[in-house]
Automatic annotation (TrEMBL):
The keyword Lipid biosynthesis applies. Residues 66-148 form the Lipoyl-binding domain. This is Biotin carboxyl carrier protein of acetyl-CoA carboxylase. One of its GO terms (molecular function) is acetyl-CoA carboxylase activity. It comes from the Bacteria. InterPro entries: AcCoA_biotinCC, Biotin_Carboxyl_Carrier/Decarb, Biotin_lipoyl, Single_hybrid_motif. GO terms for cellular component: acetyl-CoA carboxylase complex. Pathway: Lipid metabolism; fatty acid biosynthesis. One of its GO terms (biological process) is fatty acid biosynthetic process. Keywords: Biotin, Fatty acid biosynthesis, Fatty acid metabolism, Lipid biosynthesis, Lipid metabolism. The keyword tRNA processing does not apply. It comes from Novosphingobium taihuense. This protein is a component of the acetyl coenzyme A carboxylase complex; first, biotin carboxylase catalyzes the carboxylation of the carrier protein and then the transcarboxylase transfers the carboxyl group to form malonyl-CoA. Pfam families: Biotin_lipoyl.
Length: 148
């Protein structure tokens, strides 16, 4: 493992231990810099498998998110689920057209398997359009917001 990895061997071992003791079969962690997938093994050997994927080139992007490459102004869903504009019903939306956002600005939430996952802008810009209505089921890689 090289020094530029965002997680250490100990971090991965701890993630695998948490997964092993949970009711889940796999964990798929994605950031702007990398994606880590840890899964419980099948068959007689059991164990864990891990898979790294580095960000930065078109070859590293999953096929379902290739649409994001054709629209560089789009902020896309990092996973499938239901997209929500606000943290709870009746609350103001995270963003509106005309708002300035930075890389860490939360633009919405995608609910997957009863887990609420914040979606960050990932870059700076001005919100042009919110492309998906509140409470809409979205696919991984689907454009949610367009920056101007």
């Amino acid at each position: 493992m090289t020094d530029d990895l965002p997680l250490t061997h100990e971090d991965i071992a701890e993630i695998a231990a948490i997964l092993e003791n949970s009711g889940y079969r796999e964990l798929d962690l994605a950031t702007r810099r990398f994606r880590l997938r840890v899964a419980k093994g099948d068959g007689e050997h059991g164990g864990m498998t891990q898979e790294w994927q580095w960000s930065g080139t078109a070859a590293d992007v999953a096929p379902e998110s290739q649409a994001a490459i054709s629209d560089p102004d789009a902020i896309c869903s990092p996973l499938p689920g239901t997209f929500y504009h606000s943290p709870q019903p009746g609350a103001p939306p995270f963003i509106q057209p005309g708002d300035l956002v930075g890389p860490e600005t939360v633009i919405g939430i995608v609910e997957t398997m009863k887990l609420m996952n914040p979606v960050h802008a990932g870059r700076s810009g001005t919100v042009g359009d919110v492309l998906v209505p509140d409470g809409t089921l979205v696919a991984k890689g689907e454009a949610l917001v367009r920056l101007t």
